[in-house]
Amino acid sequence: MLPAHVLEAPVPSEDEFVRWATLRGVQARGALTEAAVAEMWRLRGGIARVRPHADALVAEGTLVKLEVEDGKAPVLVPASAEPDWVEPDGHVPPALLISPFDNLVWDRAFLDRVFGFRHVIEVYKREHERVYGYYVLPLLRRDRLVGRADLKHDRAERTLLVKAFHPEPGARGSLDDCLDAALLRLARVLGAEKVARS
Fold first, then answer.
1. At residue 91, does pLDDT exceed 80?
2. CA–CA separation, 105 vs 86, rounded Å?
3. Strands (E), 111-143
4. How many helices (H) and strands (E) does the chain have?
5. CATH number 1.10.10.10 given to 12-78
6. What are the residues whose beta carbons fall under 8 Å from the beta carbon of 110, sequence distance 6 or more?
């Protein structure tokens, strides 16, 4: 049961809610179009409902609206964004394996627009229909998605298993070092003691 002070709190107005939702959505996702804000919260009225609040947040310096080279809808980003994956010493990891449910890959159309990367979660497909594997994590190297790793965490053996790795077409150079670094980082997070490849 909710405490009385929660139930008795004032209900925000529609405008207060849309302003909050716009700011919270952009902060949570890192970069969103106005259409994506509306989609995220299933706001009726779409862009027209979000835009006045986005413009006000930009005017006060809380958000920044960036034009994109492809000429499509501009993107809203936090004015003072500090990615949470930056190391404590300020260094950016050489590569990261991204959860298929991560904010970066949530908006499939935006992911394709920005990275040219089409991601499909194949856990819901039958085995013979899968292209990349059961639980695939995109590999982010600097500002490019350069591959896909099908992984399994064997908890009993405390091992992160690499069932398959698929480099993206056009990925330059060897990906071994950055993949190894990303695998070790993920293994630490999972509590796995070793990484093994099939």
1. no
2. 18
3. 136-141
4. 7, 7
5. yes
6. 31, 32, 33, 36
